[in-house]
Amino acid sequence: MNEMVRITARDMVAVALKPLKAGETVSFGTGEITLKEDLSMGHKTALRDIRKGEAVIKYGFPIGEATEDIPAGAHVHTHNLHTLLSGEKEYEWHPSFPGQEKREPATFLGYPRKQGKPGIRNELWILPTVGCVNDVAKALAREAQKLAGGSVEGVYTFTHPYGCSQLGDDQDNTRKALAALATHPNAGGVLLLGLGCENSGIAQIRPYMGDFDESRVRFLVCQECEDELEAGMKLLEELAARMQEDHRTPCPADQLTIGLKCGGSDGLSGITANPTIGVFSDKLTAMGGTTILTEVPEMFGAETILMDRCETEELFRKTVSLINDFKAYFESYHMPVYENPSPGNKAGGITTLEDKALGCTQKSGSSPVKGVLAYGEHAETAGLNLLSAPGNDLVASTALAVSGAQMVLFSTGRGTPFGCPVPTVKISSNSPLARKKQNWIDFDAGRLLDGMTLEELGEDLLSLVLRVASGEKTRSEENGFHDLAIFKKGITL
Question: Which of 220, 245, 270 marks a domain boundary?
């Protein structure tokens, strides 16, 4: 078995598949190299002498520039490599993507809805419109646990600190997010809980909800009733009784929308877990399903790959705006555009943002980009979509749910326990993590290094997604982890 992997024939570095010692002669598929320094798993070594100022190639693309001469066998990382990225850029469209063969949709057992796609859960949700009623929402959720059972698969509240003292796009984001969650297919019943004097109260959020099934949503303004707990429980009991009429029925997989996200990444994430998700994405979109890729700041350095896969010039222009608008967002707050990767990423072997981005975008597979979405915009076009949202794990995962994802696939090399408003499948990049954190990890993509193929892993992941869509619990669901984080984009009054 090879101790290292060279991802493409152009690459000037190889990645350690396990901890390695200085002086060892190790193989990387097409050759051998004698290491001059110790390497941790996921870290890189130079396969030839690299001159100061020379672009270093990984994934077949530059991941930065050498800041000093690097001899063959030396460790390549933050001490001798820095980013080549800069501010806003001019881009050209060079469309290039393979044709996609259609595939007969598989089926899952879901909950059909009057409007939109089926739910993969039938949960009762309590959504506060403003942080002032968070504790009321929590009290209602505790009392309403007695309503869970049968077709009511759980009772949850998603608290947050927003809904008031916001302006402009920032306030609009909150309204869009809450409205989208209030009409999400995974919620068989929703109580939208307001205070009564907030900027984004029920009266303001309701128009954002569009045409919705009124039998599944109730509204309560706490300032307008004598006992909000008594009134809230009455409404929740009505919703739960209605939900008991719901039952899982066979649904085609083209009715699935799956979010794609990574976090706590390491040097193997772009080699095992993210490519596995990419194979899955291609398989689902070939069935007519929908996938959504987000984390715009973690596209910087690999954005031209996505731009060239845009199906139309209009989508290309939208993707250019997606990238440059996010750079302008950083600059508007006088913050560095390329303050990435995180300390954990660097410890795991990721050196520059280009290194991270080229691994991150592997989750998109090879299919064409069919849609480009603003934050809070619902995914209406089948196929691969790009979504404007930051890289922060919970903010981005919530954004995927807000855009209609019934499930999120989350790859990680270092591990994370959180769950977002929808089932969150954790996919490890390496088998040691999967063995160590069995209470967090749902799928081990590290098996690629033990002989499984990407095709086999992609099929295995598709099977897991269909089982989760049919009711199998993720580890984060078993742990009771359900959280919400709305994208904060502006001042607080």
Answer: 245
